[in-house]
Amino acid sequence: MLYVHGLWLTGAESFLIKRHLARHGYVLRAFQYSSMVESMDQVARRCARFAQALAARTQQPVHLVGHSLGGIVIYRMFETGLLEPDRFSGDFCRVVFMGTPVSGSQSARALARLGPGLRMLGQVGIRDLLHGLPAGWPFAAQLGIIAGTAGPGIGRLLTRFDGPNDGTVSVAETRLEGATDFCTLPVNHTGMWLSAQTVPQVAAFLQRGRFDTDKPV
User: Fold this and answer.
1) Is the C-alpha dihedral spanning 100, 14, 120, 151 positive or negative?
2) What is the pLDDT of residue 83?
3) Which pairs from 56-62 meet CB under 8 Å and 24+ separation?
4) What tens digit of pLDDT does each residue of 38-61 get?
5) Structure pTM?
6) What domains appear along the chain, each with residue ranges and CATH number?
7) Which contiguous run of DSSP H or E holds residue 44?
């Protein structure tokens, strides 16, 4: 995961988006975790302490961006109650989810039915990937959601999507009541953090709390 004064993604996949967002004036910090050996509670609490320390050290707003499972970790991090409310709300903390299956993942459920696939999902987020997060964003931080509409993706090898999807996560699975803004982009799940279309939208939301694109239904 990664911070943009904070941004949140797993470290390996964050390299290019870190570089591109730096051009928009953001100082980026990466947070890494193991989805195979750590529990969600362990990761969420460790992330909260990391974010709190970053806010105290920089005395700057800490914004958070999560790709896929990273968004779920951010949600659970807020639930820990370890974050200082005044530093992680309003203009001081804007959050972007990219391709995060907040209502659960049809692809993950299909993989879990394969037997060994259940172990491949790891410990972090397995419950939320299968069953989804609570139906709403109850936190004071502003939330923007980006969903992809272009495949291919591994999910299409596992299941059939009825509506628009990024090849792994459907647009419907990314919607969360209480989000500040929502947009779709013609990118697939893996390429979302590599796309030249994604970074300007992430930067726009972090700067203004709104995306720059029209918001398709």
Assistant:
1) positive
2) 94
3) 58/5, 58/27, 60/5, 60/27, 61/5, 61/87, 61/91, 61/92, 61/93, 61/94, 62/3, 62/5, 62/6, 62/87, 62/88, 62/92, 62/93
4) 889 999 999 999 999 989 988 888
5) 0.87
6) 2-95+103-143+181-208 (3.40.50)
7) helix 40-58
